[in-house]
Amino acid sequence: MIFDKKYEIVENRFISGITWLLKIKAPELKDAPAGSFVMIRPTQDYLYDPMMRRAFAIADIQEDKILIFYDIYGKGTAAITEKKAGEEISILAPLGKNFFPEHHNYYILVGGGIGFAGLSLFMKKLKQQGKPFKAIYGVRRKEQLSMLDWIRENGFEDDVIIYTEDGSYGEKGLVTRDLKEMIRENPDTALAVCGPKGMMRAVMEVAKETDTPAYLSLESKMACGFGICIGCVVKDKEHDSYIRVCYEGPVFDGHKIEF
Ligand SMILES: Cc1cc2nc3c(=O)[nH]c(=O)nc-3n(C[C@H](O)[C@H](O)[C@H](O)COP(=O)(O)OP(=O)(O)OC[C@H]3O[C@@H](n4cnc5c(N)ncnc54)[C@H](O)[C@@H]3O)c2cc1C
Ligand code: FES
Fold first, then answer.
1. CATH number (domain holding residue 193)
2. Of the ligands numbered here, which is closest to the C-alpha atom of 38?
3. Which residues contact 125 (CB under 8 A, 6 or more apart)?
4. Residue 69 sits in the same domain as residue 137
5. Which atom of ligand 2 is found nearest the CA of 225?
6. Measured from the CA of 245, which atom of ligand 2 is nearest?
7. Residue 100 falls inside a structural domain
8. Is residue 182 within 8 Å of 206, Cβ to Cβ?
9. How confident is the model over 65-113, as pLDDT tens digits?
10. I want to staple 232 with a disulfide (CB 3.0 to 4.6 A). Which of 117, 155, 217, 220 is the partner?
11. Ligand 2 centroid from CA 236, angstroms
């Protein structure tokens, strides 16, 4: 069931770099699937600029609260930073139909920048299920590690390998630096990936070379978020057709789509 409601903001604060954390009391969303997303109206109902809702991954669920980590990107996200604890926010959720499959024996999660927020709830689920995994979290520089505190607070320090491009924290280099070797050590691996397109393409190169299943959580410009505007499509190579990221996704088999 999809809810179109106003929920109370519990917290909305700056974290680091350009990232903010939004915590919302939303009891109806406490069982939202890992990988699902919300569409948030950045302004009050009586304001129409910006008009369209904006899409965000549900990064975590803590009892009756959902957590969203968001980067200030443009007008909509800047407007969301103005919202205060105690105010209400209009949300359409949970959205998406296809998420990371859970039948694989070993997972490597690869998150780039704010894309890590698209994997964090899945990582939590894998841990709860006792499934083996390793996560890679890559950013350009230390200040962009906006989910570091969340990783520590939730006890994932030993599960996540951090890469910074400038070497200011963790391993120096790109998320793909050791990926082939990690896959070789665990031949039964499936990749779960979320991040900038360039990063996802680089990960797909490794996935193709090593013949590894790879599931990509895609971002696309979204106007409606539930399948009617056809604004978010990507090419389905297998069927030579187009599919909607918001409705048939947001997670797709990376070997079968063009993005
Ligand atoms: C399924 C999904 C999950 C997402 N999860 C997160 C998240 O957890 N944290 C986060 O920081 N960002 C996330 N994004 C990206 C986020 O939706 C955009 O950064 C945001 O919509 C930008 O809005 P804006 O008004 O600030 O920018 P503007 O440039 O003013 O937005 C203009 C329009 O373009 C669209 N748009 C612009 N950039 C993007 C983009 N990168 N992806 C999709 N639409 C875009 C907006 O939706 C809007 O309709 C997600 C996107 C999708 C599709
Ligand atoms: S955002 Fe409208 S169809 Fe996907």
1. 3.40.50.80
2. 1
3. 34, 102
4. no
5. 1
6. 4
7. no
8. no
9. 999 999 999 999 999 999 999 999 999 999 999 999 999 999 999 999 9
10. 220
11. 16
